[in-house]
Amino acid sequence: ATSLSKPHICGPMSAPRTVKCWAAAKPKAALEEVCMEVPSLGPHGVELRVQFCGLCGSDVHLINSDGGYADFTGFAVGKPQVCGHEVIGIVTAVGEEVTHVKVGERAGIGWQNGACHECEWCKKGDEQLCASVKATCCEGNVGAFADYVRIQDGKFCFAIPEACDSAQTAPLLCGGQTVWTPLVQQTKDGDKVGILGLGGLGHMAIKFASALGREVTALSGSASKAEEAKALGAHAFVAHSDQSQLDALAGTLDFILVTLATTQTVDFSKFFPLLRPRGTICFVGMCPPITADVFTLGFTMNNITTSNTGGRKEMESMLAFCAEKGIGASVVLRPMDEVNACLAELESAKHAKRFVLTRD
């Protein structure tokens, strides 16, 4: 078999590769380092040598086989679950049809790793809505908790601008894009924007919204996060545990971005009154089902929307914006062999930093 240890161009019949990866053998199991085989690269494929990989809440949900995630795990198809979908690395192999990234260059891969490119949504640049969407670490795909990662649709491998720091950019490839997309699609310059939740998604949302020219109010249940929020770029801070602060904010916000990721039931009814007429509340965090008084909302014509990662155009515009503005995620670096400790801390702690796993 052809060795892939050196950079090269892959033809469609190039060999499979054995990777070292951190895998869960069953739901909620500790990850163990194992060797697994990944398929040959086709003509549109790309392989990266992993250098940095962000740790995302979706990784936890996949490993735990939580709720709706269960159907998309490796377990569901009789395979271990190998997570990792916020990856920055060096291109080590490309298919013969790939021209936008080259061997030896730095590149990144996010949550999505494939689409049909022919449907209505792909042609509109909304590849994330494609019925044939593929994900980097779902349905048995070996993700980037590994030494190498391969995808078969190289259009979802992105060149990383020179000005972007690798470690700080890795979490942007899923978490960052998740908050970037609704901010650029559903808000405009000068809008008064509330960011609800100041964890991994929320801290990136504050940075983006402020740099985009929005007037940002951070909303948190913990008054102790006020200084942290303002340091990230928030113009104001409201502790939503204090009803008097909520009353003072009523009817002032054009947009609220909900970044909370929780399995606990949340009463969102206290946040709807914060919106101006025609204002929007958008959910990007994974929450249990919500309830809303549509009769009352009808008087102010408020909107409830959702958003997910975004298409390739949002990824490219986000990376260019970050390079121009010097924006990156706030990160904590840990070696990949500490992944289990990081996962445990991610589940138990809520703070405005993202873990990024590193490989030598």
How would you describe what is shown here?
The protein is of the alpha/beta class and 360 residues long. The chain is built from ten helices and 18 strands. The chain has helices spanning 57-64, 120-123, 166-169, 175-186, 200-211, 226-232, 243-249, 294-300, 312-325, 339-348; strands spanning 8-10, 17-23, 32-38, 46-54, 87-95, 106-109, 112-114, 134-135, 148-151, 157-159, 192-196, 215-220, 236-239, 253-258, 275-283, 303-306, 331-335, 354-358. Strands 1, 4, 5, 6, 9, 10, 17 and 18 form an eight-stranded mixed beta sheet that branches. Strands 13-12-11-14-15-16 form a six-stranded parallel beta sheet, sandwiched between helices. Strands 2-3 form a two-stranded antiparallel sheet. Helix 4 crosses helix 5 (200-211). The longest helix is centred in the last third of the chain and has 14 residues, at 312-325. The two termini are 26 Å apart. Mean pLDDT is 93; it is low at 1-13.
How many strands in all?
18
Termini Cα gap: 26 Å
Globular, elongated, flat, extended or rod-shaped: what is the shape? globular
Helix-strand sequence: EEEEHEEEHEEEHHEHEHEHEEHEHEHE
Radius of gyration: 21 Å
* Class derived from helix and strand content: alpha/beta
User: What fraction, in percent, of the residue positions are helical?
Assistant: 10-25%
Largest sheet: 8 strands, mixed
Number of helices: 10
Low-confidence stretches: 1-13
The overall pLDDT average reads 93
Percentage of residues in DSSP E strands: 25-35%
